[in-house]
Write a sequence for this structure.
């Protein structure tokens, strides 16, 4: 290295800027929670597609409800499980709006099963973001419909027993069989590669709504370190090594593709 090279100062480079639709404030989520990553992805996708001003998002009860604190979007809070029903009402009276639901597994897969199934069956032009951490995070760590077999929770302290409580429900696969579902995919926040793929799924789900093709859902496998009784690092490892084999990430159905019948 020459003297000239030592004295030349490099111009600062901006490697990353937070998306404009993501609020600049401290988070109230627990350390290691995946919701913050999902918020960032939603903000990036909506911003890149120019959808912020026309988006009306719906979040129900649960940890998902805090989304309106961090996403600079118009939000409507729905009763527990009723986000798809509220979103349907918004869609019917505001056909030019972009309508998004942001729901957890205790909400979408339990008390809100009826709402999500019938919204999907009707092919409502809604994009559903389904954050699945396999547990009730806000209310004390109880078993959810997506809790894995053998997983310990406050309501099944010895582990989920399928003979007593049934097997975990693969909600996205279940919804994908409905003709009204134009697109269904499952992503994860386990690592950078998974996060990048999840962003692609979210983008496609938004484009499906813009094309008027029908209902779209993206499930995102996420962590709940407190509910799982693990450290943030251990939670990510569990998400990758234990949860993903039960709920495999990937595109489950894409009825907008010409190769699949158009």
């Amino acid at each position: 290295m020459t003297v000239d090279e030592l004295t030349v100062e490099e111009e600062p480079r901006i490697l990353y800027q937070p998306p404009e639709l993501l609020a600049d404030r401290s988070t109230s989520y627990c350390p290691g929670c995946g919701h913050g990553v999902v918020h960032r992805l939603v903000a990036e996708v909506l911003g890149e597609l120019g959808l912020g001003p026309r988006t009306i998002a719906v979040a129900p009860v649960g940890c998902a409800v805090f989304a309106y604190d961090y996403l600079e979007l118009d939000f409507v809070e729905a009763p527990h499980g009723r986000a798809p029903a509220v979103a349907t009402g918004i869609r019917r009276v505001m056909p030019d709006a972009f309508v998004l639901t942001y729901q957890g597994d205790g909400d979408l897969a339990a008390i809100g099963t009826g709402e999500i199934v019938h919204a999907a069956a009707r092919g409502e032009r809604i994009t559903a973001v389904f954050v699945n951490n396999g547990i009730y995070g806000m209310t004390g760590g109880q078993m959810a419909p997506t809790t894995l077999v053998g997983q310990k929770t406050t309501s099944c302290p010895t582990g989920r027993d399928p003979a007593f409580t049934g097997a975990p429900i693969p909600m996205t696969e279940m919804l994908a069989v409905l003709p009204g579902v134009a697109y269904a995919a499952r992503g994860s926040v386990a690592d950078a590669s998974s996060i990048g793929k999840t962003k692609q799924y979210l983008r496609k789900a938004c484009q499906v709504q813009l094309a008027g093709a029908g209902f779209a859902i993206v499930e995102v496998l996420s962590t709940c370190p407190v509910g799982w009784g693990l450290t943030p690092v251990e939670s990510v490892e569990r998400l990758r090594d234990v949860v993903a084999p039960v709920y495999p990430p990937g595109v489950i159905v894409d009825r907008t593709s010409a190769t699949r019948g158009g």
